[in-house]
Amino acid sequence: MDPLTQGVLGASLSLSASKKQHLLAAGFFGLVSGMAPDLDVLIRSESDPLLFLEFHRQFTHSLFFIPFGSFLCALILYPLFGKKLQLSFQQSWLYSALGYSTHALLDACTSYGTQLFWPLTTERYAWNVVSVIDPAFTLPILILLVFAMLKRNAWLARIAVIWALTYPTLGMIQRDRAEAVGWQLAKERQHIPIQLEAKPTFANILVWKVIYETEEEYHVDAIRVASSIKNYPGEAIAKLNLSRDFPWLDLNSQQGKDIERFRQFSNGFLARSPDDELSIIDIRYSMVPNQFNALWSVKLSPTASAYEHVEYVTHRDNSSESRQLFSDMLFDF
């Protein structure tokens, strides 16, 4: 999720469990600690463009790391602010732990993938119930948090926490409805999916991107789930096949290893780009949900040495045409 949502949810949980005289202090510690796990984005390498993908949402987001991560937050925040706010170190650690504990679970509600149980497993958990940015989720929490601090009323923060549990539950219901439509569409096309997933689109839980995998292809459709169901048939694309798509590639080279790293990050949803024969795209994300216009990819080079990395490329589909297509789906009443 975005930093604002992470911060205000962390603040809400710590504030909801605090004593009245500690409300502001608890909210501050929860706010900072709720955002702290994303400091893992600083783990980067100029020579290895995929390093940040491996470490983002990894050990700092593990449920096992909560005691250690929150301890580090308290260790830094207590001498700077805790003493002045008349907190003990134990209280500082408690409020930091409450804020820190919300982060990974909230991230797992999105479709990006979070390593909740690292180091026991590197599996990325993605429950696909909330978009990484969703004002309908964030704004009520923010408003309730502000009033909780102004009114010095912890119950308003508790209501914010209840909303933070309720909205993903609504998202889960919507996701399941979208997946049911996806399975029906596949059946009508006489396809037998190997796997099928519905993912929330930007800033809403009405329009869903449904992806399913067959033996040779990925298929994508947009499904609008409201009082009535509407589907917007989409595209199909051949699954990545390295021996067919890149016959010149040495799988033991660094580029070959990088593709496997990218595959693990994307949960296997890879295809060769239809726009660039040297690029491999992560098909999970696109501005228009029934298209494969990917938001990021890796680019290979036939002339690269055995030790050279792939190039990581981000794409920003901000064209007016794409925005209009998405808007037409979202507001198609």
TrEMBL record:
GO molecular function: hydrolase activity
Keywords: Hydrolase, Membrane, Transmembrane, Transmembrane helix
Alphabetical list of InterPro entries matching this protein: Transcription_regulator, YdjM-like
One Pfam short name: YdjM
Domain of life, per lineage: Bacteria
TM ranges: 63-81, 93-113, 125-150
Signal peptide location: none
PANTHER family in UniProt: HYPOTHETICAL MEMBRANE SPANNING PROTEIN, MEMBRANE-BOUND METAL-DEPENDENT HYDROLASE
Protein name: Metal-dependent hydrolase
Organism annotation: Vibrio ouci
